[in-house]
Amino acid sequence: RALKKAVNIADLRLIAKSRAHKMVFDYLDAGSDDEISLRRGKDAYTELEMHYKILAGIKPPLDLSTKIFGMDVNLPFFGCPTAGNRMFHWEGETAAARAAETHGTLYGLSSLATTGITEIGELHNGPKVFQLYVWKDRELVKDVIAKAKEGGFGALALTVDFTWYGNRERDIRNDFSIPPKYSIPQIIEAVRKPAWTYDFLSHDPYTYACINTEVPADSLAAFVNSQIAPEFNWSDAEWLLGEWNGPAAPKGVVRPEDAKKAIEIGFSSIWVSNHGARQLETSPATIDVLPSIREAVGPDVEIIMDGGVQRGTDIAKAIALGADSVGVGKPYLWGLAAGGYDGVNKAYDILKVELDRAMGLLGTPTVEDLKREGPSLIKRRHG
Ligand code: FNR
Question: Which pTM value belongs to this model?
């Protein structure tokens, strides 16, 4: 019922908060350190104003279709790869993938997903991208890439902002672990959130299915730090591109120089991101760096952007300022935690209606129009 009444993404967040175990909600919701990047990443959109065109003569329906990694999609936004979805709701990644397919958009599967590559490959027939963390074990990397190819993943995103695990202080304070420890605060929270607890206890064991690994009962941060290869560099990235041999983006770019270099070594696309402000604190708001990256790579290189998007107007601004498509992480995860598949669908519905309205009012009926005219329609406040 509450889901039906949700008017916007912020409402979904509140439902998620009331339904999920605090430790899990905070893992989903938090940024690193003092959460400065988290706040700025969202607030940066409010500094941008929409100088809409009048009497543009637009006849609905608008055309929101475009391409992402060369694959046809109905929407210019999509669900980013995110870890551990079964924590939020037992349907986990399957719900997120099915909702993306329902809306005809891209689905991003994380290396730290709790549903396997092959399972998602079989279930989601639409366009999908596999996100790769670079494991110390190269054979594992090769194995994962091969599975992604077989599973019909049309593109690879190499996450490059995760050489160390970010300092998520909410997780430390909550003593975050999966399964929850049997400490008094965890038990009280489990009793307070019976629907979540029932779901969590009564469904499949929780494993990192993509890499076939039991979830370490102790610390996710320590596990990731022990498995990931921070020494991975540009020439290793070239090796990886050779192994993959298909559309690929480095995910986590914030500097124009890095974007240029990535294209030079053979990436097809650039993914501007700061990992939802969960990694390096005071990394810039992605919407602020986007125009300089567009300028650096020129008009023809595909740019995907994510970070802080919670409104259709945010998506419109990102496309207007140089993104070809826009990823969302927390918005659909709040939907997932609020109500499984229905919740993710609701998140997509909300953003779609909002984007449709924003583009109509702005005077740009297609994604192409928005890209072409965008830079003249968005201006910085007081500018
Ligand atoms: C993420 N993100 C992420 N990125 C990635 O490359 N691999 C991963 O496993 C994860 N896991 C993950 C878990 C959770 C709970 C969140 C919120 C995010 C980052 C994600 O792909 C994306 O870059 C951000 O979420 C985008 O910012 P917003 O939309 O959350 O503000």
Answer: 0.97
